[in-house]
Write a structure and sequence with these properties.
Elements (H helix, E strand, L loop, with lengths): L3 E4 L2 E4 L4 E7 L3 H6 L3 E6 L6 E6 L5 E3 L7 E6 L4 E6 L8 E7 L2 E2 L3 E6 L1
Parallel strand pairs: 2-11
Antiparallel strand pairs: 1-3, 3-8, 4-5, 4-9, 5-6, 7-8, 9-10, 9-11
């Protein structure tokens, strides 16, 4: 079972930025070979939804709602997945989860005030 630790959530005003990171317990080699990893979010009363994914070849997919505002990246040497969130909106408020090799982190809360 892969252990995942997320960080970077918090309270920010509308228009602000946050940077989320997650690290894993896997080896750097296993991390580098992991094809798809990504960030998901779950707002109160809603289902968990995809935010962004990235493959081992750096191909990315974004939800329409975050396209142009969020950037996903991975650092294989550090075993780290990052989500840079800019121009945040109140509707981005949610618990954000990192997913690597089908394992989930505990989530980190992002709250955007209007």
């Amino acid at each position: 079972q892969v252990q995942i630790a997320e960080s970077g959530g918090g309270l920010v005003q509308s228009g602000g930025s946050l940077r989320l990171s997650c690290t894993t317990s896997t080896s750097a080699l296993v991390f580098a070979l992991t094809d798809v990893m990504g960030w998901y979010r779950q707002a109160p009363g809603k289902q968990r939804e995809l935010v962004a994914t990235i493959t081992h070849t750096r191909n990315t997919v974004y939800a329409d709602s975050v396209l142009g505002r969020f950037t996903i990246s991975r650092d294989n040497a550090k075993k780290m997945l990052t989500l840079q969130m800019d121009s945040l909106k109140p509707e981005d408020t949610a618990v954000y989860y990192c997913n690597v090799d089908s394992s989930w982190g505990q989530g980190t809360l992002v709250t955007v005030s209007s």
